[in-house]
Write a structure and sequence with these properties.
The complex is a heterodimer.
Chain A: E1 4-8, H1 18-28, E2 32-38, H2 47-51, E3 57-64, H3 69-80, E4 86-89, H4 93-100, E5 107-109, H5 119-129, E6 132-136, H6 138-142, H7 146-165, E7 169-172, H8 184-193, H9 198-216, E8 219-221, E9 224-225
Chain B: E1 12-21, H1 27-50, E2 53-57, E3 61-67, H2 71-79, E4 83-84, E5 87-97, H3 100-107, E6 121-124, E7 127-135, E8 138-143, E9 157-160
Antiparallel strand pairs in B: 1-3, 1-5, 2-3, 4-5, 6-7, 7-8, 8-9
Helix pairs in contact in B: 1-2
The chains are: A alpha/beta, B alpha+beta.
Chain lengths: ~230, ~180
């Protein structure tokens, strides 16, 4: 299976250069990584060097940080051209909803950061616009005690929603350093503890590859491809 | 070992892991951290089912024993360790096996030096590897081919600077006063 880590942050967002993340991910058994630095901080440090790492594909995507839905839609429209992968910095309830309603967006990253989760309306919109939801396992590793319990409650509720509406799901750690990365098998084991089926978890790790392949074909307009 | 009915004997799995950390971590600190993560993740009830024991830990590689039905849970447990005694760290599971012997032989490198580590290289036809250490004229070599030291129970191949005569061990400019 082609496992991809879909939501990484390199310098200056995180503390590792893109090539260091690539090497660490390769050792853990990934076949590719997508580095999605925040749209407010610019391109990751050393992304040219990362392309020279053999045996792993390094994709430079982007994670949109927006204060309100209007700027989110504007940024998504302007960044869509020329970027293989577009994520949205989720967590806020309004932003989560707006991201799910925008067909330009590929991934809603860490929607559970602000305890809000996605909710029914956003889940329906995500299904219609084929926006994938990211199960960010970073909090499960970082947090302990009551904070993690709250996070798990929110995730459990949303996993039910994701199953009900059959949404696209990706699994990531949202790593900012090589020490945050976990191997695909570790992520599957963690997701299983949260009540996700093993088969679904494996599919979720392989999904970024198929999304990337779709995005790289040249679409003239919706549903029309230049051959 | 305490005798026990063979049919009731608990079955075990051994998890070989590698610790990736920013500093030195002692065995006690690591065990404490994993135990804390365990009771946080599973509670006392689930933690008891894991039957977690630290078998060995040498600062980098280690071996953990757990119940044979709870390997996936233990894998998740090790994944939730993000720091040990204030030092950022991560535990990488290298493999799981049914006996200490198999787990050690398959997943824990017997040499502390990895062949691909960027040390000074020696290539002498049948013998090739990286220099582990140099004491006077005596040289310990970590062989690329692990089978070379089989039977003798040693990690390194013993050479002298005379063996390297003609071949320049310090060709890269790093002389050790050989």
């Amino acid at each position: 299976m082609n496992f991809y880590e879909c939501n990484l942050h390199a310098l200056p967002d995180g503390s590792d250069s893109a090539s260091r993340l690539a090497l660490a991910a390769k050792r853990l058994g990934y076949s590719g990584i997508i580095i999605t630095n925040h749209s407010t901080t610019g391109r990751p440090f050393g992304f040219e060097a990362a392309r020279r790492v053999e045996g792993i594909e390094v994709v430079i995507g982007s994670e949109i940080v927006a204060k309100n839905p209007r700027t989110l839609h504007a940024k998504a429209a302007s960044l869509r051209e020329g970027s293989d992968f577009l994520a949205v910095h989720g967590g806020d309830e309004k932003i989560n909803r707006a991201a799910c309603e925008d067909p330009n967006v590929d991934l809603l990253a860490h929607p559970h950061d602000g305890r809000s989760g996605i909710g029914v309306a956003a889940a329906k919109a995500a299904r219609d616009n084929q926006v994938a939801i990211c199960l960010d396992l970073g909090p499960m590793i970082r947090l302990r005690g009551a904070a993690r319990v709250r996070w798990m409650e929110a995730v459990r509720r949303d996993l039910d929603l994701i199953g009900k509406f059959d949404l696209n799901l990706m699994i990531s750690t949202g790593a900012r350093s090589h020490l945050d990365l976990r191997s695909p098998r570790d992520l599957v084991a963690l997701a299983e503890l949260l009540g996700l089926e093993r088969r679904r978890a494996v599919e979720a790790l392989a999904l970024p590859k198929s999304i990337l392949d779709l995005n790289r074909r040249s679409w003239a307009s919706v549903g029309v491809e230049l051959v | 070992m305490r005798s026990w009915l063979p049919v009731l004997r608990d079955r075990r799995r051994y998890i070989a892991f590698e610790l990736e950390a920013e500093g030195r971590v002692s065995r006690g600190e690591l065990v404490g951290e994993i135990r804390a993560a365990q009771s946080s993740l599973f509670g006392d009830l689930g933690a008891a089912k894991n039957r977690f024991r630290m078998i060995s830990f040498d600062g980098r590689f280690g071996l953990i024993r757990c119940s044979h039905k709870r390997t996936e849970e233990c894998r998740a447990l090790l994944a939730t360790v993000g720091s040990v005694a204030g030092t950022r760290a991560a535990i990488r599971v290298r493999g799981i096996s049914g006996s200490i012997k198999a787990a050690t032989e398959k997943y824990i490198p017997q040499s502390t030096l990895q062949p691909d580590e960027n040390k000074r290289r020696v290539d002498l036809g049948p013998v090739s590897g990286s220099v582990a250490r140099v004491i006077g004229r005596e040289i310990d070599l970590c062989p690329d081919d692990r089978k070379m030291t089989e039977g003798s129970g040693t990690r390194y191949v013993g050479l002298t600077s005379f063996d390297l005569c003609g071949e320049d061990i310090d060709a890269d400019g790093t002389s050790d006063g050989l």
